[in-house]
Structures are given as C-alpha cells and as structure tokens.
User: What shape does this take?
Amino acid sequence: MKSYLYKIFKSLENLESKIAFYPAIISLVGLLFAFFMIFLESIGISKYLIEHAPILVVNNTETARSLLTTFIAGLISIMVFSFSLVMILLNQASSNFSPRVLPGLISNRRHQIILGIYNATLLYCIFTLVSITPHGDKYQMPGFSVLLAIIFMTLSLGAFIYFIHSISQEIQVNTIMDKIFKKSKYRLEKLVEAEKYIDTEFEDSSNWKCITANTTGYMQDVNLRPLANLAQEHNLKIEIVPIKGAYILKGIAVIKYKGEANKGMDEDEDLESKLLDTIVFSNNELIEDNYVLAFKQITEIALKAMSPGINDPGTCINAIDYITELFALRMTKKDHSFYFNENDEAIIHINTVSFEELLYNVMAALRTYCRHDIIVVQKLFIMFQYLLQQNNVLNENYKETIIKEVVNLKKDALDTHNNERDIELINSYITKLENVNPSEYTFEV
Assistant: This one.
C-alpha cells in the first residue's frame, strides 16, 4: 500500500512540474469565485453595500460594461504576450544552453502562478460581465463584483510587471546554472547526511533471482522504506541493478534478490510484484531525485558555450566553477550505497555512479571540445588543484582518479597546443599539482 501511495506522490510531483498545472488550479478557483459572487449578488450584497458603503459599489451599468470589456481584451493581450515570452525563453534555453534544462524552466512555480492569475481574472471578468442581465426595465447590476474585478485587474498588472522582471532574470545562463547547482547540492548534502559510514561488503549477486522491468522509462526513484520492510519480512537481501536515472527497457533486470524459499510459484510472483512496485519509472529526469543529472546539464551548457556558433568561453569557465564545487561535495560521499536494518546489517545494495565514472564522463566531454582553449584548460587544472587539496575526502582512491584525469588532460593539452608560452603554462600547472599531490603518484603521460 505504501509503495502505491509513494507512486501517487511521485506522479503528483511530476504533474506539478507541468507548465499548465498551477494555471489550471488557479483558473478553477477564479471560476468558482465568479459563481460564488453571482450567488452573493443574487441575494442582494450590492444592494446592501449601496445602503451602507456605497463607495464599494460601481452602480453605473455602462461604466461597468466598459470596464469589464476593456479588462477582458487587455488580459487576453497580456496572456498572449506572456506565453510568447515563455516560449521564447524555452526556445533560447534549448538552442543556447541545453534541452535538458527545459524541465527546470517549465516547472518555475512563480511563472505558473502568474499565468494562473491572468486566467483566473479573465474568467472572473467574463462571468461577471455575463451576469449583468436585464431585470424588468432595469439591469441587475453586480456593483460589488465589478469593484473586485478592478482589484483583480490591478493585481494582474502588478503580476505582469513582476513577470517581465522575472523572465529577464530566468533567461540568463548564470541564473539557470545557479538553480541547477543549488538543487543538486541540496540533493547531495541529503545523501551524504543519510549515509552510515560503516565498512561493509555485499554478497556477490550473480546467481540471485532477477526481476525484470514490465515497462520502459527512466528509473526515477526507489521507495526504500517499503522495500526494506519486504526485505525484513521475507528475510531477503536485495540489489537494485540499474543506476538511478538510467533508461530502462522492458525485460531488463532491475532487482536481484536472495532469501528464504517460498511455498509456491504464486507467492513468488506476488512477492516479485510487490518488490517491483517499489521502483518508480518516469519519462522525466529530475535533479531533485538524481544529482548526476546536474553534472550532465552544467557540462552540456559548458560545451554549448564553446561551440563555434556561440563561442562563449566565459560561460564555460563559470560552468567549471559550479562543477568544481559539486565534485568537492561528491568526494565526501561513498561510491556504494546501502540500506541498513536496525542491526546495522546491509540488506539493500543500490548501484550508483562511481566518482571515477562521473569524473571521466565530465572530463571526456570537456577535453574533447575545450582543449583548444588554453584559458579553459588552465581553469580545469585549477579545478584539479582544488580537488586534490580537499581534506575531507572519504576515499583516497578518489585522488588516484583525479591524477588519471590530470594525466589525460595534460596529454590532450600538449598534443593540441604548439605555442611555447602555452606549453610553459601547462607545465607550470603540472608542477603546482605535483607539489599538492602525494609523492607516490606521477603525472607522467
């Protein structure tokens, strides 16, 4: 039951990231409020206010109609302009930065709320205008509702001014990278805090029973608590085979388990179905669930900035600054993740991207597309120098991995650059790294 609730929760999280989610909710509120005001007008709220507070009522039919008609036309224009700006933002972000950053921009809650305010005010004005109907030889005049329409329109104009300010900030690459960085840093810090620093060896799972995926999609998350309950209830040891964020094809093994023999095939199938229900599949990748995606996105922004069509090494250097801090934080986390029971016994092994693989994937791309720029190469050497100086490194093998990438960068840089001054600069940074690096390592190619 808990796994189903967790899946529903994750589905709602995915729905919340859609650009139409908050506008639809707020529009519905505006529509319901319009009907509520029509009901209040039918029982005479405007008549009561005319007698006791006439300043709160618009009591001229032509004025009310003109105001509401103008508001409706103006709001439609504002909405078209605002949606056009959003589309321009998404198109520019996709072209200049990376298509992977689009989900983060689309899920911007402030923009969704502003668009919802526009639509709610528009619906309210439309239904308030419709409620001005002939009543005998006079018109039923919803004077108080018209005053509220003026207030809502003023609020919409304020939201529009804020929207222009916000969209001008959101389209800047530094703002995009900073948001990606903060989300991934928060996720990494949570993972580091949750880790138990217990040295453990997990059993070889090559001969364990396999559970294959019954659908395709990204493995978004694992609901560990129900999975751990199943493991303890049936005395199981479990391994999550794919790395979180990997694209899973139908029929690929996702869970391996070992435990007591069950009484029959039906019970085995029921248990396997429950275990598989703890895996959440999705067609979206979210940094909130997978910090590795942040490395991919920031690296792709750096590579796009170095493309001939954009040629913006400054953005690439800024991206390397963010990557440097994320790598420094990643060095405080273990390569293997386990879930421990109350007796501190590892019962679930979760495969994760190792530090070596993560660093290689980032550096392989940067070396390939940025090695021709000596300033970027210099920045990469500074990044390695900073990482080697970290004292809170959880695993000393991480520094060996960094040394390997320094050697790879040195080889590519020397092969690319023939200018004596550039070669001198490269060698000077190698000398600095040798002074930082323990003596047992070598930077020879």
In short: DSSP finds 16 helices and ten strands in the chain. The chain has a mean pLDDT of 81. The two ends are 57 Å apart (CA to CA). The first helix runs from residue 2 to 16.
